[in-house]
Amino acid sequence: MAELYYGHRSRLYLDDLYNNPQNACEVIQEAYSQGVRAINLVNNPNLLEAYNLAADAGCEMKVIATIGKSDVDYLNPNYEVAKEVDWDEDIELFSSYDCPLMLVDEFIVDAYDWKLTSKILSEINDAGALSGIVTAFPSKTTDLLPDNLDMDLFDVYMIPFNSISYMMDINAFNASQRQEFVDRVLNLNKKIIATRILAAGVLKPKEAFAFLKNIDYIDAVSIGVAKVEEAREDFTLLNEY
């Protein structure tokens, strides 16, 4: 999606992948050949074209859909704009895919409009999929959830999680801080998906995977790859861990 937090690489991703679905398709195909059987999709025509091309070539995967993705600037988010996105169209769209799980986008969740988040989760549940939420602020959001959201409404919690706490709302991540944070997350009693495990490229895959190897409270990871070679190298290495 060429998010701006990738810095100068965002422009490269825009040209090489976002504006070139065939290239993105080839990355998906390589991931599939390395054993990947699930993909995180948003309602974006370029991304969906890439996935549909890969699926037509035999690379059908389970779709983990992010509902309510908007064009809000990640570095300077306008949460009110994010809340206006046509999220119900997303639910209808992804109901036509093999989509067992739909997640409410972080810009909606982190607006802390609990009534809206609850409504979207209820609609996802009514559509027959498992539901979840995404946050960019795992510490703050984790603290707010029990008192503001019906915890029975969702099943999965996607959070940024890496060894250096990059793009997490935690100033440091020493052993005691990490355990305190983990305890709070585990008290929610949800399945956990870790995202940004490579810290937007700050960490090498081997570093990230070594950190996660001995962690038993992460149920799944979401990894971004931008080239066929990256998909081959990263997922081959991941299989070793």
Defining traits:
single chain; 241 residues; alpha/beta; seven-stranded parallel sheet; globular
Distance between the termini: 27 Å
Uncertain spans, ≥5 residues at pLDDT below 50?
Answer: none
What's the number of extended β-strand segments?
A: 7
Query: How large, in whole angstroms, is the Cα Rg?
Result: 17 Å
Shape: globular
Strand content: 5-15%
Instruction: Give the number of helices.
Output: 11
Query: How confident is the prediction overall: mean pLDDT?
Result: 91
Structural class assignment: alpha/beta
* Largest sheet descriptor: 7 strands, parallel
Quaternary status of these chains? single chain
Topology:
Layout: H1 9-18, H2 21-33, E1 38-41, H3 45-56, E2 62-67, H4 79-82, H5 87-94, E3 101-104, H6 106-109, H7 114-126, E4 130-134, H8 138-148, E5 156-160, H9 175-186, E6 191-195, H10 205-213, E7 220-222, H11 228-240
Parallel strand pairs: 1-2, 2-3, 3-4, 4-5, 5-6, 6-7
